[in-house]
Amino acid sequence: MSIQFKSITELNELLDKKVISPSELTQESIELAKKYNELNCFVTLNEENSRKKSASIDRNQKKSSLLSGIPLAQKDLFCTEGLRTTCSSKILSNFIPPYSATAVEKLEDAGSITIGKTNMDEFAMGSSNETSFFGNVHNPWKKGFVPGGSSGGSAAAVAAGIVPAATGTDTGGSIRQPAAHCGITGLKPTYGRISRWGMIAFASSLDQAGPLARNAEDCAILLNSMSGYDSKDTTSLNSDVPNFLENINQSIKGRKIGIIKEFDLSDLDTEVQKRFEESKNAYENLGAEFIEVSLPNISASVPTYYSIAPAECSSNLSRFDGVRFGYRAANTDDLNDLYVKSRSEGFGDEVKRRILIGTYALSAGYYDAYYKKAQQVRRLIKNDFDNVFKSIDLLMTPTSPSTAFEFESKGTQNPVELYLEDLFTISANLAGLPAISIPHGQVNSLPVGLQLIGNFLREDLLLNAAHVFQTNSDFHDAKPNLENFK
Amino acid sequence: MSWETVIGLETHVQLSTKTKLFSRASTAFGASPNTNVNLIDCGLPGVLPSVNKEAFYKAIRFGMAIGAHINQTSIFDRKNYFYADLPKGYQITQMDLPIVLGGSIEILTNDSAKTINITRAHLEEDAGKSIHDEFDGFSAIDLNRAGTPLLEIVSEPEISSAKEAVAYMKSIHQLVTYLDVSDGNMAQGSLRCDANVSIRKSGDSELGTRTEIKNINSFKFIEKAINFEIKRQIKILESEEKVTQETRLYDSAKDETRPMRSKEFANDYRYFPEPDLLPVVISDQEMQKIKDEFPELPTEKEIRYQEEYGLSLYDAQIIASSKSMADFYESAVASVKNYTLLANWFIGEISAYLNKELIEIHESKLNPENIAMLINRIDDQTISGKIGKSIFEEMCINGSSPDQIIGSKGLKQITDDDSIEKVVDEVIDNNPEQVEGYKSGKEKLFGFFVGQVMKKTQGKANPQTVNKILKEKLTK
After folding, report:
1. Nearest-CA neighbor of A210 among A75, A347, A40?
2. Nearest by CB to B84, which of A199, A335, A371?
3. Of B363, B384, B409, which residue sits at a domain end?
4. What is the pLDDT of residues A272-318, one digit of tens each?
5. Residue numbers of the domain that contains B440
6. Alpha-carbon distance A137 to A160, whole Å?
7. Which of B297, B39, B311 lies closest to B175 in space, CA to CA?
8. Which of B91, B77, B217 is nearest to B146 (CA)?
9. Which of A7, A65, A150, A402 is catalytic?
10. Quick one: B118 and B237 in the same domain?
11. Whether B272 and A311 lie within 8 Å, measured CB to CB
12. pLDDT beyond 90 at B226
């Protein structure tokens, strides 16, 4: 029997009934990854170690974790000890880390098997997975279409049923937007919920790891393992981690859901609007109440983000200098030449663009006008959220203004066009709030995502609302036809 | 035309924490290259810093000692620039909210006191070291020093001469070693400074154009570098030309300063708050604990030495002048009875030896137990003071204990009357002419007899006993 498209919960049942062993499961997952090689989800497969580890898993031994023997894929910006970690960049194309990211370590400690590292936008900079040094990832729903980004490889691998879940990171929407475009569930937790140790930084104050899975329940299983304070990341939150599965089934009757007045949805594709209205009705039928709320500063999210994120990125990416690790250009004259050539040859265009924007935003005479101003606006946006969450439990928006688009159809002339992909997702990163994207139907045979944003540390409410929606609908069960991919 | 010199110093003090400012790697000096380095120090992708609070406690102790304001909430910033020994491409430092703000330091030059105000002192990490001459065609990087905590102390431009600058650095040295903030070892780079020097016409209120002399690491070089720079700038001004604002390097071999980097390459450091670290908050309890555990300062020691050990102010000042001397003295004084004798040795022999060798006492082969033993042997007349001095010389060379030296060389003092009388008799018998001379009034010859007795006993005879017996025999 095939394990393709099975959720973690379903796989646990097969493992418990000994229909399949952890070894067989892992092997099948790897076979699927190879079979759908054309999707280009994976940068590196972890075949040998996966086989070894899965053979050593004994599900009877201890009180078995729900991840024991479950194959997972890790976004290729999580450092994995002894396993190449590239950030889909030429500059790290030969980098083998001597240590593992805390998030990966925790998932592996729970018994999961890392079968490979997934493709992504270079250094997580992009919304279409088109900036990868290792080539585009196809959307499993339509060949030649983007899976979204930056966690495009992870989203596509889950959507294609190769692995039941994968890790991603979300700086401005990089988990939620690809989850939406690929028709799966993706959660960006509260900033600090999951340690950033070992996650190669793009924008430190915005980056957050999270799960992509077939449904909200599986996201909760991963979140349970990944969360928690880490002394190696002093920005991680020292607060209790609840069992996110515990209240996932409870009724959402009486939940107050805010609709953001400032987001004018009438500009969107009418079908996208329709899906949104339908889901609103579905939630009303489940007992939720809708309230229109105002976040007066939210329209400044995109420019605010594109001042802060590139500024931090310009500094974070300085360590890729060809001196200690990574790509070093040959035949250089002196130290300066080594920097210039290694970085010019090692980084792609989008990364260079953001380094330039960020360097400019931080430079003498511009710092106050850009970076400092953006931080002030960020504070205002956060205050807006604090304010509305006094009277509501969740906010609801579309995840993305549109569905997946064709390769090279957006942003090639004007990068800003692609930056607007993040219109609905960015504000949660600026405010450090948790948000989830769930599939809620299709437009022109491509999945559409619905975003729920929660208050600080209230992933439980997000997962609950998402799960209840999913137990009453089957959008998340839709499977792409993969016949076109060899 | 008379000119006035204005100097401000930026002093880098390496804090004596066991581990680095943002990693748990050791800060020990002198390890093989790249052995005191962990993932964080080499700036690997994905690593994050975590703050070593011990560095904060030391910085706060310094701040309290100079009467500064302590920012109990302080933040780190990134200073961005590329250099091969700067692993992350930025240095984590403090810009807007440094841990120490204000305060002042007393300096003493030619017996006159002056107060130098401190602008601020902030914590930052050190860079690694580039080695350019060891590998043909390559430069090498040693990251052992990368991430070592530094306290950068910035003075107001209130220093008016090279001598004052040296006095200021000496005050800082005394303070940081006393506070156990730093080992103060200048040869190992634990204390170094950048000097901002400018010249203006006497009486002018506006400052002249300054130059910055980087990384001066000895008292001697501070004086020489600044004096060279003062002369150079005055010469420029006297020929009615303009001083260029630039960074200069002091070359001790040539005794000159020369431009280090030109202005075209001036860096824009693009400071911004370090997003990987939360603001560091020091609680009131932590502040109180630092106060409660505040170490004794030099002036407090001087008073205590006078009261407890009956030392003169002068002696107490000399002993308390350096932390290592005071520690050594306090450790030795615990096992001796004759405090004055011990103090005399510190002021005399020990200081003379250290000054001659230009070392600090903890760098010598001496240890407090051996010095206490030496004082006790002189005090209980096992040896004479003179023999004591020769034993001391040997202790300085090989670090052996006085008892060892006394035993192996048979230097124990001869105190019994019979043995000494026997030698005295021999001397008198062998020198009839001198005996005759002495008896006929040449009293100066007494010294000759003492010398002969000492010679025959290899200096071991107790001088008082020798005098007594000689007098008796010669006046018979």
Report:
1. A75
2. A335
3. B409
4. 999 999 999 999 999 999 999 999 999 999 999 999 999 999 999 99
5. 417-474
6. 12
7. B297
8. B91
9. A150
10. yes
11. yes
12. yes
Same domain for B195 and B274: yes
Measured at the CA of A197, the angle between CA A128 and CA A77, to 5 degrees, comes to: 25
- In sequence order, what are the beta bridge partners of B136? none
The ipTM (two decimal places) reads 0.96
**Per-residue model confidence as pLDDT tens digits over B296-352:** 998 899 999 999 999 998 899 889 988 889 999 999 999 999 998 999 999 999 999
C-alpha to C-alpha distance for A386 and A389, rounded to whole angstroms: 5
| B291 within some domain | no
Distance from CA of B78 to the nearest CA of A (A): 8
Which of B286, B318, B346 corresponds to the end of one domain?
A: B286
Inspect the interface and report whether the beta carbons of A318 and B39 lie closer than 8 Å: no
Judgement on whether residues B150 and B37 belong to the same structural domain of the protein: yes
Using one digit for the tens of pLDDT, what is the confidence trace for B279-296? 999 999 999 999 999 999
- Taking CA–CA distances from B278, the nearest residue in chain A reads A235
pTM of the model: 0.89
Q: Does A311 touch chain B (CB under 8 A)?
A: yes
Instruction: Determine which one of A75, A106, A142, A410 is catalytic.
Output: A75
Check whether residue B273 and residue B308 sit in a common domain. no
Query: Count of domains in chain B?
Result: 3
Are A362 and B51 an interchain contact pair (Cβ–Cβ within 8 Å)? no
Domains and CATH numbers, chain A: 1-486 (3.90.1300.10)
Indicate if B279 and B374 belong to the same structural domain.
no
Any domain includes B443:
yes
State whether B271 and A97 contact (CB < 8 Å). Answer: no
B381-428 pLDDT tens trace: 888 888 889 889 989 998 888 888 888 877 777 777 788 888 888 888
Has A89 been annotated as catalytic? Answer: no
Min CA distance, B89 vs chain A (Å)?
5
What's the length of chain B?
476
What residues pair up with B214 in beta bridges, in sequence order?
B249
On whether both B310 and B275 belong to a single domain, the answer is: no
